[in-house]
Amino acid sequence: MSSPAVGDDQRRDACATREAILKAARRRFSSCGYADVTLRDIAADTEVSAALVVKYFGSKEDLFTEASGFEQDAERLLDCELPQLGEHLVRTLLDYHEQTQGDPLLRAVFTSSRPAGAQFRANFEHQLLTRLAERLPGPDAQLRAELVCSHLMGLAASRLVLRTEAITAEPKENLVAITAPLIQNWLDGPL
Amino acid sequence: MSSPAVGDDQRRDACATREAILKAARRRFSSCGYADVTLRDIAADTEVSAALVVKYFGSKEDLFTEASGFEQDAERLLDCELPQLGEHLVRTLLDYHEQTQGDPLLRAVFTSSRPAGAQFRANFEHQLLTRLAERLPGPDAQLRAELVCSHLMGLAASRLVLRTEAITAEPKENLVAITAPLIQNWLDGPL
């Protein structure tokens, strides 16, 4: 019987491998398009076997659906009542940064910018942005949802890509305190 | 003697060619690094001769300095007194979007994210971000400057990459009216 520590290590490794495969899949699919990518390409990028990719994700279509999608992110990001949603959004995204050095909104920006990014962009819009807009009362809900996402994307770009000094050094709770009220204003409306 | 219309066309063509060369140079240099890029590569990407690249930009070093730099952008963006700077920043960036389908802050994000993007990132920081921070009175000037840039980057990503419906359709003056006061609050401080 393996000790609990070994079990934890294995789970962590499996999780990291899964993330690495997803990341490679996102890059390949958004750059080259579904038809021109094979599971073998993605496996090679991640230095694992194609069989392991199949074991983790099933078919190429299943992998594409998961790699290009924002369903799970939307579930996590929108899992909060409206009066606290501003704070929840900021805190959840800052947690993502810590845990994965990634951010789903920033991922939408980068994948959408690539030659075959149209499906990523459409999924971001339908699975996350529109769902947020539908939650908002009052006029200009779509515009307010876009302003919210837009601000959060900028924050992620500063922290994860440009890694600008002050925003990166600022304690998480201070960033929540600075930005959540602004986000909440847009969520509550009106503009 | 050529008619004024032909002269205008030539100037427009020259300007577009110059922009295309700069764009290719940015992509090449930030992806591959200075040493691994030749003027011939950049010329080929733009479908012009290497001689034309030299005519427009001088040496490879000169081209790198201009392609990786934010001096001219900073000059245009910061050319305003502090009390009106919020509005000036938003309006100037929205003008960039209309005129070039590009944005210097978004360019900083994309070039910095590439394997050889360190010099682009450093230039963005020294030539634009720090210069903005130095203009700001009161405490947390660096953090406030970063929040300003961060918000403007998000706006650019929404308009130029994700092209989300409402932000893209919103008239320029409305976007200025919505976002400039927020930007100005950070510029004026305190947080």
TrEMBL record, chains A, B:
Residues 38-57 bind DNA. Pfam families: TetR_C_16, TetR_N. Gene3D superfamilies: Tetracycline Repressor, domain 2. Transmembrane segments: none annotated. Residues 15-75 form the HTH tetR-type domain. Keywords: DNA-binding. This is TetR family transcriptional regulator.
